[in-house]
């Protein structure tokens, strides 16, 4: 459920689900930190929201609830094991096994964005996030001012550059292609560790960069295979997320529904 004014929640509401963008402590209902917005560290979000809504609240990481949504209602539907990766301002991940979220030790799990790709400290997030691609494109525009990317670049300060990649690729821009090829290879290398460790039946690509579309899906699939142990090749099915910007909202709804049904099951036994 999404409600712009929490005090207007109706009596028919039995649970609220939260997908928070950062590590959380689901046992005590607290935010551990936000890597995007300061001021959230150790905030007791469940207690606070329960006083606003007067209903029980279930808390999870946003990538986890997105994984739950895609596994049950999106591109991972029908697969027993699904790993979801979101390529947004940061990079996050979540895994669903037999319909249930995989949960490691607190305060989190499946943090593929923090997976190191070399001994220099480069991570999946530092190379494959929207923010990282923004910086790469800005530098490329400085070096190649006559490229298609440079002509497409926003003129206002603070404009988003990563979203230009798809348009520049469709115009056969060689600079854009080099950036794209490295993105696909870095992401495939990062995902190879997921596959070699867990061997899920499906990988789902979500977030803003996934809007590049099948070009990205196919490039990652092609580059993933050589990084896998021979017995796992060619690798799992790779799909684009299908729930778009609603994925966290849908996942938070499923989280709340599951918590409610679990409570009913406990009462009836």
TrEMBL record:
The lineage of its organism: Bacteria, Pseudomonadati, Bacteroidota, Cytophagia, Cytophagales. It comes from the Bacteria. Belongs to the ROK (NagC/XylR) family. PANTHER family: BIFUNCTIONAL UDP-N-ACETYLGLUCOSAMINE 2-EPIMERASE_N-ACETYLMANNOSAMINE KINASE (PTHR18964:SF149), ROK (REPRESSOR, ORF, KINASE) FAMILY (PTHR18964). This is ROK family protein. It comes from Spirosoma telluris.
